Amino acid sequence: MRGDGTGMDITTAEAPPRLLDLTRLVSRAGRPFTGIDRVEYAYLAQLLDTGPLYGLVRSSLGYLLLDRRGCAELKRRLDANDWPAPDRLSRLRGRDAARAGAETALRRVAVARCLPHWLPRMLRRRLPAGTHYLNTGHTNLTDRVVGALRRVPGMKIAVLLHDTIPLDYPAYQAAGIPERFRGFLLRTGRFADLVICNSRQTERDLRRHLGPLGLAPETVVAHLGVPVPVPSAAPEGPWSGRRYFVVLGTVEPRKNHALLLDIWEQEAPDADLLICGGRGWNNAGVFARLDRGIARVHELPGLDDHQVAALLRGSAGLLFPSHAEGYGLPPMEAAALGVPVLANDLPVLREVLGDIPVYANVSKRYLWADKIRRMAEDRRADPDSEMRSAEGAALPGWDVHFKTVLTLI
Is the pTM of this model over 0.85? Predict the structure, then answer.
């Protein structure tokens, strides 16, 4: 795509053909979106309105190539959570029902499909010269895919890098993740024409890892848009009518739920703690504590974005004791709703949110406990949650992100 950096509108006529990797979104069919899923979805929605579009999906039976109609069909089904019954081929591969149904639906609308060995030929025959490939999900940038892409004349490769956490904090990862991520990052460094970094912190981390290897891909920093879902009816439970806090994210070691469980067990703040997120990996100790039960601590997995927004809006605040983040969407979403945020003092949060959150180092448990008590008291003094939807902070939007990125790739 051509552009002069002035923020001018980019017309469909000026846009090159683009191939968006949709493997991650299809693999997540039927499950609540993670932060990375939201980014891939945002790219899908934007690119449907911006020039020629194709989609690439690695399925259990090989590769699928979608045209614009197929990409639009995927978005429609994601929006409606509408997946057909899996066909016999999908059932044989042992996928969960929603993912198998997603692959079934996309096979029906794919303009081409192939076994892995034939991927280079399929892409070379089906894609226009000068197509630009975008990978936004840290998924499917394999040696096979890179080799096939490079067979298409004039192909450009862009990768959105969310973080380098698997290499920086390998102890927090599931088995095999650091090794797979190292391969992904090396391929990015060697073959990407552009690396889109979601923050200056991520750009610094990329250079720290690749610089010693002599790899210096072109980069651009483009803050991600912060979604602000319209709140629906808040789920009810023992916390209804009482003060409560929300912690949002997968229950895995990096998110540091253990600190909050320590506080609720040992300090017993006069508020409930709602854990909005499913259980992840490498966290047996935390899971055992939750299974035993802790007074006024409640797990609420599987909520949709609108339910989470409603809980946030009525809360005393979002608690975010994460050890490390590439971007950190939950505190940004809370701030956009006007909800107080207590967070670990992370560089990326300072970069995007500035002084909006209250920061406290997670090594200081008593400081966290004290600030939680103060936030609960503030909530008692100002219980009107309905005002918060109009008080949110001005945060990055997708329009600025795409004006930055789509002039370059």
Answer: yes
